[in-house]
Write a structure and sequence with these properties.
Layout (H helix, E strand, L loop, with lengths): L5 E5 L1 E5 L2 E5 L2 H10 L3 E5 L8 H5 L4 E4 L24 H16 L4 E4 L1 H9 L3 E3 L19 H4 L4 E5 L4 H5 L5 E4 L6 E4 L4 E6 L5 E6 L5 E4 L11 H18 L1
Parallel strand pairs: 1-4, 1-5, 5-6, 6-13
Antiparallel strand pairs: 2-3, 7-10, 8-9, 8-11, 11-12, 12-13
């Protein structure tokens, strides 16, 4: 290609001081630019202002980030959130229809943490709002009192599905160590999704969309210092390869 392909990265909305902003964490931008060798294009959370096809005509891939906010339960038929739960309705109104249309068009997609949960909802799945309160499931949250390097340190293993894409990316090895920085998790898996990884407690930690060239979602945070982790490095390289193949 004569240019690096464009990967859309939708924003969260955030109040910084007295002013509203549209934001994306640097780690996601670097994972696209340096890990996937693609050009990141930040997409403001403007909800139904967007015309999706003209936007998607101009981009080659989609990376959907994590966030401190949770998907509002109205989108998957869940009970009302606990008081004080952080939501981002502008992001929901942007990402859910954007992801649906991108899937219909076969655009390569990688979802991370909240993006993983959003893709499950798009595919008709449901979410646990507080995994740590579900009998039989572990506490998958990070300790916010610890330094960020500790919060994003390795927390548990995941088992990669035999014959799955992630196991292939991992050179055939069946387990990796991952971080764990989430409260929501999959309750029921969406239609047309294939499990790619599970935590020791059985919680789904990764899946892919069947019959799609590359639509993968990860519950943990592979973008965190991805260059220090062989699997994360390989994952973003494979995502970039999928984007380039889609436009070749």
């Amino acid at each position: 290609m004569s240019r690096r392909p464009l990967v859309a990265v939708p924003c969260c909305t955030r109040m910084l001081g007295a002013h509203p902003f549209h934001v994306v964490g640097d780690k996601y931008i670097r994972a696209v630019s340096e890990g996937a060798d693609c050009q990141p294009l930040l997409i403001p959370a403007l909800g139904d202002w967007w015309e999706w096809d003209p936007l998607l005509d101009r981009v080659d891939g989609l990376l959907v980030t994590g966030s401190p906010s949770n998907v509002e339960p109205q989108h998957y038929g869940g009970p009302a959130s606990a008081p004080g739960t952080l939501h981002d309705p502008e992001r929901d109104a942007t990402n859910l229809p954007l992801m649906r249309r991108a899937l219909e068009r076969g655009i390569p997609m990688l979802g991370i943490c909240r993006g993983f949960q959003e893709l499950n909802v798009v595919m008709g799945g449901t979410l646990h709002q507080s995994v740590q309160t579900v009998p039989g499931l572990a506490d998958h949250r990070a300790d916010d009192s610890k330094p960020v390097e500790v919060q994003y340190g390795k927390a548990h293993s995941v088992t990669l599905t035999e014959g799955g894409l992630l196991r292939q990316i991992n050179g055939g090895a069946g387990q990796i160590e991952v971080n764990s920085v989430h409260m929501q998790g999959i309750e029921t898996l969406g239609r047309g999704l294939a499990v790619e990884a599970r935590a020791p407690d059985g919680l789904v930690e990764a899946f892919r969309v069947e019959d799609h060239p590359f639509a993968v979602a990860i519950q943990w945070h592979p973008e965190w210092r991805f260059w220090e982790d062989p699997f994360s490095t390989a994952l973003f390289a494979r995502f970039g390869e999928a984007v380039r193949q889609a436009v070749s």
